[in-house]
Amino acid sequence: MSDINQPIPEPDVTAQSPISEHWVWAGTHRPPVPRRLVEYMTSNWAPDEPSDEVHPANAFSASRRRRVSEHFAGKTLVIPTGPQKIRSNDTEYRFRPGTEFFYLTGCDEPDAVLVMAPSAAGPRSTLYIPQRRNQLTHDFFTDARYGELWVGRRRGPDEAKVYFDIDTAPLEYLEKDLASLSATDVVTLRGFDEKADALIEPNEQDELLRTTLSELRLVKDQFEVAQLQLAIDFTVKGFEDVVRALPDAEGRGERVIEGVFNLRARVEGNDVGYSTIAASGSNATVLHWMRNDGAVRSGDLLLLDAGIECHNLYTADVTRTMPINGRFSSAQRRIYELVLRAQEAGIAEVKPGAAFTAPHGAAMKILCEGLHELGIMEEDPEYAMRRDRQLYRRYTLHGTSHMLGLDVHDCEHARNDLLRGGNLAEGYVLTVEPGLYFQPNDLTVPEQYRGIGVRIEDDILVTASGALNLSAALPREPDEVESWMAEIWSRGPAKLGL
């Protein structure tokens, strides 16, 4: 990236020195800007017509704001989204709004702050958002943070009011408006925006706000379920893309698999919902293998754990383990079928009122019995599962389920006795993802199984009568996996230009 990514500082248009009649000084290391250039850059632009579009989740967002306000009667709630984050030096990551802020507004602009004040008619919500720096202002080309030549068109308060169906105010007014409030009357979601946090003294209920928002998000509304299904449907396409590209990945490596899936994520959605795990061979025994720089070899398995985040930021989280050459070996199939049985037992436990841990307990029982039958674990399964033993964890360390939504590990700030220590309820969406991982140098494992890692993961909606597998479009039975891969390859090779 060339040095032009450093903008000229804001011109001092009020300077009275003789030289300011012709120049605006740009700082120690940059040349001055001619005043004539400022005039030229801010004139002769066609009118910018505002959009009359509205966000599809507005009704849901308003309902969510009302619900959270009910938990904090008489309090003003401050929920920032946070600024852009530095990737390196003066370059930034692509911005993703704060989860709780986005849940309540649908707004994806950086630095914005939601303020909900109490009133007799219910919460009075105001979205504080940066004003536009369009072609009518010198900030258009001098301000790299907000100038629209640098960052693209923004909505600004006026257009945001229509699009999000919420009262708005310029972000510059936030400090003055909050200064008039007593610190005891303001509860803030902290940790997202240092500037916003500094505007108000900490309140003993600040952490409760974070917890409450997580707990309110446990039950997904109709809009959220539809967005999750959309993200999963996109993810299914991404898995098909990877299968199509597997022949090209051989000899080139896991980077091809990651790149192919992530291409689909950007084509269909906003991005990947988390770092893609494209683990081939013994890399599949590393639970969070994200380097994706290993070899892809015929005869090995590929463990692909990946999810696409849709434009409204809900993410899928799906794992399939597939034979790179399209056929499971007998040893691979034996381990795969054991994990599949465990997953099916876990999914069968998903129903309203069941303990959140019930799927995990059912899946681990099957895995322990299978490990015993394979001669890998000598202890009796029930004995091995005792809390003071847990020997099976050498081969399957992670939990079986987590919540899913705007975050891949969703609602993590909910109280433990409501989440992992609580019961499932209609509207929850969770993963069921047992796995077995045999390290290549594990002497307790027969040689034919060493280096095999298998995980099968689906996204499950808790319904009134049980469970709905939202990712069922991806095959799981080993024969179906092989047929699915063969059918994709029969359509012809991927055209990757590699």
What do you see in this structure?
There is one protein chain. With 498 residues, this protein is of the alpha+beta class. The protein folds into two domains: 58-128 and 155-216, Creatine Amidinohydrolase, Chain A, domain 1, CATH 3.40.350.10; 222-490, Creatine Amidinohydrolase (Alpha-Beta Complex), CATH 3.90.230.10. Helices cover 32% and strands 14% of the residues. The chain contains 15 helices and 19 strands. The chain has helices at residues 35-41, 58-70, 99-105, 139-142, 148-151, 156-163, 174-179, 194-198, 206-216, 222-249, 254-268, 330-348, 358-373, 381-384, 478-490, and strands at 23-24, 33-34, 76-80, 86-88, 91-92, 113-117, 124-129, 167-170, 186-188, 271-272, 277-280, 301-306, 308-309, 318-323, 429-432, 435-437, 453-455, 458-462, 467-469. It has a five-stranded mixed sheet with strand order 8-7-6-3-9. The protein has a three-stranded antiparallel sheet with strand order 11-12-14. A three-stranded antiparallel sheet has the order 15-18-19. Strand 4 (86-88) and strand 5 form a beta hairpin. Helix 10 (222-249) runs antiparallel to helix 11 and helix 12 (330-348) runs antiparallel to helix 13 (358-373). The chain starts with 22 loop residues before the first strand and ends in an 8-residue tail after the last helix. Mean pLDDT is 92; it is low at 1-21 and 24-30.
